Amino acid sequence: MFISSISKEQLDQLENASFPGKIYVVDKEGPEFSRAIAYLRRQKILGFDTETRPCFSPSQPRYGVSLLQLSGAGKAFLFRIKSLGMHKRLCSLLADPKIIKVGAAVHDDIKGLQKYNHFTPASFVDLQKIVWEYGISDKSVKKMSAIILGFKISKAQQLSNWEAEALSESQEKYAATDAWVCREMYIRLMDSEKNPLPQGTCGGPVVE
């Protein structure tokens, strides 16, 4: 059984963790892009996330999705969508019903990617919509990962410039971790016994 919610004090006591595998940044078609797609197509479960350059004032134009992150257990691929575009092979991957894609608040991420190229998403899992089944009311990736996996992840790079000419090592690690940790949470949940929150409670389903 998992705790329902975690406090800042409890979070501070946990050890930091980040993606332990190899990170690849892909910004154009070519052999590296083909190797990435081949690896991702062999996976049964992928961690999924996107990053967008933040806006700091209402007068600023809204930026489109800058980065698409897809992670297996040992490799994470960061696709720079602004230069690569939503390639048809990426669209096909995200539309493949045989590959589970796990993220948090995936609806907005998918909508952002569809602005570049339309695809019909298949086999997406939104952790925010299923954790209540396991007695968890917290919905942020940082808190969910702490509750489910027992470690904390850094969010320090969240508001960094995802359209920088070159991503920093810290940005790459952050982006890979956000996708990977969603995959790891899903796998842990699938091996755990359900303990749903009562209906109508914070995080639980609401009956109309």
Which helices and strands, and how do they pair?
Elements: H1 8-12, E1 22-26, H2 31-41, E2 45-52, E3 65-71, E4 75-80, H3 81-84, H4 88-94, E5 100-103, H5 106-114, E6 124-126, H6 127-130, H7 141-149, H8 169-190
Parallel strand pairs: 1-4, 2-5, 5-6
Antiparallel strand pairs: 2-3, 3-4
Low-pLDDT sequence parts: none
Distance between the termini: 28 Å
Average of pLDDT: 93
The helix-strand sequence is HEHEEEHHEHEHHH
Structural class: alpha/beta
Strand content: 15-25%
Q: Number of helical runs? A: 8
Radius of gyration: 17 Å
Fraction of residues in helix: 25-40%
Oligomer: single chain
Taking the sheet with the most strands, its summary is:
6 strands, mixed
* Gross morphology: globular
The largest sheet has its strands arranged as 1-4-3-2-5-6
What is the number of strand segments? 6
Feature tags:
6 strands, 6-stranded mixed beta sheet
Characterization of this structure:
It is a single chain. This protein starts with 7 loop residues before the first helix and ends in an 18-residue tail after the last helix. The longest helix is centred in the last third of the chain and has 22 residues. The protein is globular and about 50 Å long. The protein has a 6-stranded mixed sheet with strand order 1-4-3-2-5-6. With 208 residues, it is α/β, with parallel strands linked by helices. The model has no long low-confidence stretch (mean pLDDT 93). It has 8 helices and 6 strands.
